[in-house]
Amino acid sequence: MAAIYRVDMSSLSVRKEEASEAYRDLGGRGLTSSIVADEVPGTCHPLSAENKLVIAPGILSGTGAPCSGRISVGAKSPLTGTIKESNAGGQGAIALATLGIKALVLEGAPVDGKFHRLMIDADGVRIEPADDLIGKGNYDTVAAQFEKFGDKIVCISIGQAGEMRCSAASIAVTDPDGRPTRHCGRGGLGAVMGSKGIKLIVMDPTGGQRPKPADAEAFKAGAKKFQAALSSHPLTGGGLAKLGTNALANVINEAGAYPTRNFSDGQFEGTEAISGERQHDVIIERGGKIGHACHRGCTIKCSRIYVDENGQYVTKGPEYETIWAHGADCGIDDLDAIAQMDRLDDDFGIDTIEAGATIGVAMEAGIIPFGDAQQAIGLLKEVGKGTALGRLIASGADVLGKAYGMSRIPTVKGQAMPAYDPRAAQGIGVTYATSTMGADHTAGYAIGANILGVGGSVDPLKPEGQVELSRGLQIATASIDASGLCLFVAFAVLDDPTAGEGVCEMLGGFYGREFSGDDFSALGKRVLTKERQFNAAAGFTAADDRLPDFFKSEKLAPHDVTFAVSDEDLDQLHDFVD
Amino acid sequence: MARVEVLLFAALREYIDGARSVEIEIQPDQTIEQVLLDLGVPLKQTRIIFRNNRAAAFSDRLQDGDRLGVFPAIGGG
Questions:
Q1: What HEC string does A411-449 produce?
Q2: Given a cut of 90, is residue A5 above it in pLDDT?
Q3: Averaged pLDDT score across all residues of chain A
Q4: A272 contacts B72? CB cut-off 8 A
């Protein structure tokens, strides 16, 4: 039976307990959001001892289900003040599941303000000092662990931003190559980990046992069907491996929804230079790698290894959102400079979306000019130095924008918008406005039906149909995030009914009972209901489910549109929540 | 005759020798489908079509000065 470990950082003690009936069939976001909603006071300060950081593998993580290695981290967010779940790939979910851990609940706060390492192996969880790692970035931090404990380990760590408890701090998870490249980026959960005095978690899965489905035959049949659907789809069966997530740059730009220079234009003249096509060619020419898997068992392989002109490793990817945030949103068309910034973000431990969007606001504020890549790199390096300006950058667009008296700050509930302008893709605007976690594209990826021709077709420039679209996607996404499956499986699920059947059959095989499409939907509604209840307790109301005013008053080129979904319609999104 | 700019992306670029775009002369009111067939682009490989940055269909007709953007299945995010 998988266990929940409670690590009390106030008393520096560890307690192992069996999951209660209510949590037994949950995992991933389903479990993190349930524990946070049940145990964390909505009104607490996110960096106080009352907050809890919950880390959980998905329901299917470690079972061998294709693309099921997502790890969820949840808490009350210091960036948004809402409940937050941020998930990532990497080896963390598989390691936890193999060690029989359903969730790690990090509670309290150290009275001496010191940093610690959690050491987890087949013998349990131990709290050890980590004074020698203070001030180190994620790369040096994890390299020292691999040197000390060997190459079987998996690390979850924070960099300088998390140590400083800055509200855009991320939590890094090592990939199959032992690099800290997969981040639970959104919502500043690295700051919560820092407030618990935990610099890193080292897991050695040696001697552990992978979770076993209750009905192995049914599970295996479901996994086979699911993998066949993934393999036969043009995106999950090869497209994402070849061009990576940044294949989106050209299509979103062509749709006029590519936010440029802090959301002041819908098309960027430098898109081709930072496009997925160009990135692919650069990587191939220099001997980097495409089709890289971020965790073992990933068959989509959208990751890549970016190298410099001498063929030396720089960073992973970078991903579409990262390239946009440090690229078009800052008016920068230099792929090498963007890769450097991605590396710095990962090392300091800050969310790449928030970091780029914050630099965009800094440019609008006149701190540095739009388009100046070298000054942007310099600004980011302030984070590593811990200067006042660096702390502002690592605290996100909202904080920096307020400090500089700006009014055009593209955030919802304090979190920066990702790489789609909500005026030219109004479905994603609904998701930004109403998500339980602030502006977040993954919460309900309406870009599929708005622009990509996946999962139906809804005119991106009109308000009609967007709330229904976003609602369905937000429910399905909450289920996927609980399952531990990568969200990219949705491209196949939305196009091919056998993919969704495979998912339900895997879950049914895992539980040892029938699991229908309705059960899948009910899981998502259950998760969202918990999250809405937490946010209500934290003081959030319908007035918070809105985009900033300038999206309703400033027209966006080339379509000359404003965001037109009415407040009344936005308020209908969560009509399934009591 | 009408002059249009055709932009092909991702794997479709192989049909215009790896270039990003071509400017071609067509008969006024020619359909997008016909333009793509003339360029040797298999329709089955196309998934997302824009005419002047708006979603378009194979049957839409092009005019002088139009910009046509065509993609295969694209995903990411």
A1: EECCEECCCCCCCCCHHHHHHHHHCCCCCCCCCCCCHHH
A2: yes
A3: 98
A4: no
